[in-house]
Amino acid sequence: MATSAKLALDKHSQNENWTVVMPRRGKKRIQSRRHNTPEAEQQPWVPTELESDPEREAKLIQKMEFCIKKVESSRFYQNFLEQVENPEILDSFQRVLGFELKMPMVIYGIGSIESYETPRFQLSLAILMKRKFDWIGDIEVFDPILSATESRVLESLGCSVLSVNEQGRRRATKPTLFYMPHCEAGLYNNLLQVNWELELLNHMVLFGNSFEMYEFFSEIKNSIVVESSRHILAARKFADEYVIKTASDDYFAAFHDSSWHFFSPALDTELLLVKN
């Protein structure tokens, strides 16, 4: 039900420069969309198998329905809603929305929802947000390991599966919520780099790994790690971060060290800290 509020561990292995859960590939996707990623960055994508498996679909739908209900009835979710509905965070969403009525949600790096419970919890939270808040628009999803069966189930849950690997380089030409729980640093860095302009950064909301955590690790790790996180570290200076509380061990794996990030650079000079 829509709210009455009026508002106009990294995953476990790497695949195609993404940090994702261990792959289990499947079959065919029935719907896809292309968006405003520069053509040079778009990589056409299809699942390796040709057909979806109806039996696996049915089982996965049952698993997702169970997870959605479990999350919805949890103390974690109640804490999450209380945080989002806090006036300070609601005002941050309102600032990003501006005169728009809705902001689409783009989900990168969700992992295999068929093989692992953690991605199912992460997807469940995204779906519950869409159901709860009338200012969240369409949901688009991409992960290079998604199977055709998983793609079909995602679409049955009201999501679209992208037909290109954007490498996280979606320009926020309008208010956009990027939902990226436990992606690798390079993917967040790609997203920030392609949006490294005042107007675009002000159009973004990011749900993902804590940038404060990256700043901490940058002080003790080697220069390669720092290089892959340089836009993240620079964005810390004009980002408001709100840490997600996991509330119980059930949700620790899915949401530990996760935060909301809102970006509000006011001057071009703030963006000179990183050279593209």
UniProtKB/TrEMBL annotation:
Bias-annotated ranges (Basic residues): 24-35
Record domain SRR1-like: where: 100-262
Spans annotated as Disordered: 24-45
Superkingdom of the source species: Eukaryota
InterPro entries: SRR1-like, SRR1L
Residues in coiled coil: none
Family affiliation: Belongs to the SRR1 family.
Name listed for the protein in its UniProt record: SRR1-like domain-containing protein
Record organism: Salix suchowensis
Lineage: Eukaryota, Viridiplantae, Streptophyta, Embryophyta, Tracheophyta
